[in-house]
Amino acid sequence: LLSPSTTMKRALQTSSQARLSSEAIDRTVPFAFDKRVASVFGDMITRSVPLYGLVQDLSAQIAARFATPGSALCDLGCSTGTTLVAVTNFLTSRQVQLIGVDNSGAMLDACRKKLAEHGVVGVQLIEADLAQIALPPCSAILCNYTLQFVPPEQRVAILKRIHAALNPGGALVLTEKICHA
């Protein structure tokens, strides 16, 4: 069975679009969502996560359905902004504050670029560790393929923080890759 970082490394190594295949990858350096990874993330993630595009689209639809005017909709682990862009296609009210959170500045730079390319404005992007961030009251929170990169001992506390931030009737859309027999 492959860990998330092993899967991502393999995807990164085999990507024809990655332009990193000619570079030696130092296997002693931990995987990081740095500038190199951010530049190829879209290609890498679509090959390493089955039905990634469909999950992003469905997550965006569900979150938009729960979004209420005057509330926040947070994407935790927003990476390059694919889900944030998709959410804007389904929102019936632009009076929802969109917030993207990621712990990688390089991923947030790629997110800013993608949002601009799609004409999405007014999204607040925050570089923060999920274990440390104070979340605003939210009608919907997205957490797609994020907790697998959080140490297991921190996950319950993060989920409790998410639960506390949800408005009554709010929704958490949580998606993860799992390993099973």
Kindly report the average pLDDT value: 84
Strand-pairing-aware structural class:
alpha/beta
The proportion of residues in beta strands is 15-25%
Strand order of the largest sheet: 3-2-1-4-5
What's the end-to-end separation, in Å? 10 Å
Condensed summary:
The protein has 181 residues and is an alpha/beta fold. The protein has helices spanning 4-14, 35-48, 52-66, 82-90, 105-117, 152-165; strands at 72-76, 97-102, 124-127, 138-144, 166-175.
Please provide a written account of the structure.
With 181 residues, this protein is an alpha/beta fold. Helices cover 42% and strands 18% of the residues. The chain has a 5-stranded parallel sheet. It is globular and about 45 Å long. The N and C termini lie close together (10 Å). 35% of the residues are buried.
Blueprint (SSEs and pairs):
Layout: H1 4-14, H2 35-48, H3 52-66, E1 72-76, H4 82-90, E2 97-102, H5 105-117, E3 124-127, E4 138-144, H6 152-165, E5 166-175
Parallel strand pairs: 1-2, 1-4, 2-3, 4-5
